Amino acid sequence: MIIRKKEHWFRMLFVWRGSVLPKVLPRLLALFLLSFVIVYLHGHILSYKVPLNPAPLTLFGFVLALFLGFRNNASYERFWEGRKLWGAQLNITRSLVRQALTLVNTKIADASVITFVALLTACTYALKHQLRGTDPTEDLRKRLSEKQFKLVEQEQYKPIVITRLLGEWVQKAKLENNIDSIQQARFDANIDKIADVIGGCERIASTPIPYSYRVLLHRTVYIYCFLLPFGLVDSLRWFTPFIVVFIAYTFVAFEAIADEIEEPFGTDTNDLALSNMCEMIETTLLELAGRHTAATAKKQDIFID
What is the Cα–Cα distance from 94 to 100, expressed in whole angstroms? Predict the structure, then answer.
């Protein structure tokens, strides 16, 4: 995900990086060439004049815009829910580290608490890799002991397995009389919340918007865009290719944006910056535990996941 400072309105007109324009530009060029040919042929296909005018296209364009609005709302709802889940992950892990430092009878620099922090960060990285379908080996090796890594390595749902290790850490603290039963229950409640976050992310990742709905809208957008030149050629003449591309950019770009944010955990330009979130969570947990480290990412105008 690319995050920019607020741009001047004029500079926004020429933003390329982070825009969907590079993705849709070949389609717009194809529409421009098609419109140019249609104008050259005066709206004829062979010897048949296509009897279209702007009126029905205007009405149909309004309806199509409404359907695109619903499509974008559905996609953005998935994107925003994913962001809220990762925000919850940040808050829950902070609460767990605070509990480990204040409720457990141990010093702030105790290796046991650092182990607990490492498990929390490993769970976060494992969730990121599971959602993206990438290899978590390197990130997990850095944060887990050899024994823990061997337990997690071959499992399919690694974040959930790590929550079991978190529970075992709490159980060990209880057996060693470092916490009482009430404090153990408070730990377990927050670990359950992490499981809820993992399940919520899995639900978004495994339940896309119905394919038939996407296909229907996709076909409708492109059929409408290819019919536009026939409806405008008689009134706009050689301005037709430019107006068609301008209108098509709105519809095609809306569809492209909806496709990107529909799967918020991917690596497209407008997807969630999960790598940055993982680094930020790790940094704040280490700071809570009294392990001040250099920032994992320098402050810049643009952050790219």
Answer: 10
Cα-based distances in Å from 200 to 39, 74, 85, 164, 265: 52, 16, 7, 18, 12
Q: In this predicted structure, which of 13-17, 170-174, 194-198, 214-218 has the lowest mean pLDDT?
A: 13-17
Q: Which class for 97: exposed (0-12), middle (13-18), buried (19 or more C-beta within 10 A)?
A: buried
* 234 exposure class (CB count in 10 Å sphere: 0-12, 13-18, 19+): middle
- The three-state secondary structure class of 181 is helix
Provide the whole-model pTM: 0.85
**296 vs 51 pLDDT, higher one:** 51
Q: Which burial class, exposed, middle or buried, applies to 285 when counting CB atoms under 10 A from its CB (0-12, 13-18, 19+)?
A: buried
- How far is 68 from 279, CA to CA, in rounded Å? 35
Q: Are strands 48-49 and 44-45 parallel, antiparallel or unpaired?
A: antiparallel
Exposed / middle / buried, residue 271 (Cβ in 10 Å: 0-12, 13-18, 19+): buried
DSSP 8-class letter at 305: -
pLDDT of residue 116: 93
Q: Is 303 helix (H, G, I), strand (E, B) or coil?
A: strand
Residue found under tokens 């004029």: 10
Question: pLDDT (tens digit, 9 = 90+) per residue, 98-143?
Answer: 999 888 775 544 778 889 999 999 999 999 999 999 999 999 999 9
Could you write out the three-class secondary structure of 39-67?
Answer: HHCCCEECCEECCCCHHHHHHHHHHHHHH
* Burial group, residue 62, by CB count within 10 angstroms (0-12, 13-18, 19+): exposed
pLDDT above 50: residue 295: no
